[in-house]
Amino acid sequence: MTLSTTEPATTSIRQIRKVAVLGAGTMGSRIAAHMTNAGMPVVLLDIVPPGTAADADKAAKNKFVLAAMEGLKKSKPAAFYAPDNARLITVGNFDDDLALLADCDWIIEVVAEDLAIKRALLEKVEKHRRANAIITSNTSGLPIHKIVEGMGEDLRRHWFGTHFFNPPRYMRLLELIPTPDSDPADAALVERFCDLRLGKTVVHAHDTPNFIANRIGTFSMTNAMRLMQVQGLTIEEIDALTGSAIGWPKTGTFRLGDMVGIDVLAHVAKNFRAQAAAIHDERADIELLPFIGTMVEKKWLGDKTGQGFYKKQGKDAEGRDIRLVIDPATLEYKSSTRPKLAALEMTKNVESAAARIPQLLHADSKDKAAAFYWPFLTELFTYAANRVPEIADNIVEIDEAMKAGYNWELGPFEMFDAAGVRATTEKMRAAGAPIAANVEKLLAVGGTWYRDDASVPSGRLYFDPVSNSYKPVVLPDGVASVATIKKAKGVVRKNPGASVIDLGDGVAAIELHSKMNALGDDIVSLITQTLKPASEQVAGFEAVVITGDSTNFSVGANLMQLLLLMQDQEWDDVDLAVRAFQNMTQAIKFCPRPVVVAPYGMCLGGGTEMSLHAAARQPHAELYMGLVETGVGLIPGGGGCKEMAIRSVEAATSIRPDGRGEGVELFEALKKNFETIAMAKVSTSAAEASALGFLKDSDNVTMNRGRLLTDAKLRARQLADAGYTPPVPRSDIPAPGENALATLKLAVWTMHEAQFISDHDAKVANWVAYALCGGKVTPGTPVSEQYLLDLEREAFLSLCGEKKTQERIAFTLKTGKPLRN
């Protein structure tokens, strides 16, 4: 399994082969960990603990950095794609090991936010740094140019800011902040590396306080807190109003503060206040509420200290966290209640934030939610519009920063467009609210910040207030989306669950677009009909990609459809549905054209089965893949057991010289895959998906989510150009048989006797063993793929008739959690 790097052509021969990180705190150590996720060897250094004797042993001097390494190995969410990545990190300290920097191509400074400390360290680094080695700072607050002011010309030329967001593995944003002295070639090299190898969305920020994302984000958070006080709202209400309702993370404002760290929030706000007056920020008066300062003094800093704006107090009967919330007036904790806001209830079934925003913003002002949204959103629109070109050259950089750094569904200018720029501005004008000069410029030329335009590669134009004109949105080569291609080329075929799109170069894409991409009859039908040999829908196409633009590839089969059939005891219809699903996965596997599945996010159950049957897989690095059917009292019924059984045999035959795949080797491979299915194991990365057996060594991994479509298309095109020949259905699979089945069932019995699993868990696990072993046949009996599919279907249908399975499915649909009954 290798990383895909669809790197633009370049004449430069410089490459980043080794990285150093100076500072092993939470941020520095996690940056180092993510570098190893890209396969980079890393030097990680930190200070010697104060008071340590000069002749102390290495362990004592490296106490801080070694503690950081232990923290990385235990961190949740995981910092490493695979635990073994830790071997790529060489640790040391600033007193003894700066010589390790000599062969590093990129050095990242991540020490305390103190100008004197940073400058003192850089003076030491200069004695060991190789000439032309790039050195950057991860500071979130100090002016980049000030840190190296007066230092040597070579250092200043190779110096700029690279601001990662925490946690670096999961947060896509990297703000790149050059100084007037920075070498553009260095910045371009780091940008390309962070894009391709680290999967970052790179935005270009100006060297202004808090750069882009924290400038806008801090304003929005502090303004939400101000309005809470002015309007008499509660913490829970603010979190509901500033969460998923407007396309922001469901954490809202205060829950996000707990996750980030209230001390970090206070630091960023304080830093802004210290510099706001000098840059004439019109909202320099906004600051954190006084009670937050008291919380910082008390060390109530959020999740990392166990309490902040919220505090956990055990779990409820359904396993959900019980949270208390702080009372800002008394600083005492009380029961947290779910707020009831009429406007939010009315729009909860509206799919997109773009559709919800105008409804919420222009609702009856007597409604509590609308009364909050009008000042909150319009002041955000004005504040963002006034920041161009102060913090960035254009509105695109600001929107991308907020989407990648704060996980907003839309950037502030995209939100303004959704609200209706002209209508919103006229209401603001009538109310006497200030109108940004850049908004007046926009209204004189057009009515929206963005325009669709199929004539440009990105399919989109943006309004540039500096030139007073519309310009093309420029995407890095290789970054693409299904949505943009659909706008340019249209749709070949579609139904409510999926569409076929022409990607160009003889490659078609099948995009899933049901709710959560749950696999229902419509998706199954479209994929099967599209991939059959004589399909007219893909006539002229030589390869097919299955992927999409959504957050998750697929959460698996449509359980609601299945449950309704089960409750009505429509067993013939259940049987037909399973057969149809199996026909779909076989159509993927035996399609005469290569089918590449490009999974991302959650790829569960049937989504994993689709991937297992593809000619190749092109996953995104952040992949949560698993055959999870046992969690709802079922087994994989779409060929998942069949494919994992075949992989068990292939793993064993690759070990045994006689090629028979029998004995201990086969059982060990079979046992591993049995545990993966029976325990509903889910990967936390593509690397772990490979270790679980869902991916193959020949599969490539894409680090940057925005490049997944292009990488998958290239992989499909490569297979077609190589003269792809589909596999022939096998009839010679040596079944592990009754001996292996008996051993697996014994293991299940032992787990049940020890009360690790319930009666129904045991029943489900025994069916998994039955399907994987090929039933009660003599070991080595050659069986066909269809035979294994029939066993799966038999097991699946039997479990559908179980009351406990139906209870599990109903519980999962209601709560999103598994039921252990």
UniProtKB/TrEMBL annotation:
Known pathway: Lipid metabolism; fatty acid beta-oxidation
NAD as UniProt keyword: yes
Domain called 3-hydroxyacyl-CoA dehydrogenase NAD binding: residue spans: 18-207
Entries under Pfam families matching the protein: 3HCDH, 3HCDH_N, ECH_1
Keyword Oxidoreductase (UniProt): yes
Domain (3-hydroxyacyl-CoA dehydrogenase C-terminal): residue spans on this chain: 211-311
Provenance organism: Edaphobacter acidisoli
Coiled-coil ranges per UniProt: none
GO term, biological process aspect, one: fatty acid metabolic process
Keyword line: Fatty acid metabolism, Lipid degradation, Lipid metabolism, NAD, Oxidoreductase
Domain of life: Bacteria
Recorded GO MF terms: (3S)-3-hydroxyacyl-CoA dehydrogenase (NAD+) activity; NAD+ binding
Name assigned to this protein: 3-hydroxyacyl-CoA dehydrogenase
Catalytic activity reported: a (3S)-3-hydroxyacyl-CoA + NAD(+) = a 3-oxoacyl-CoA + NADH + H(+)
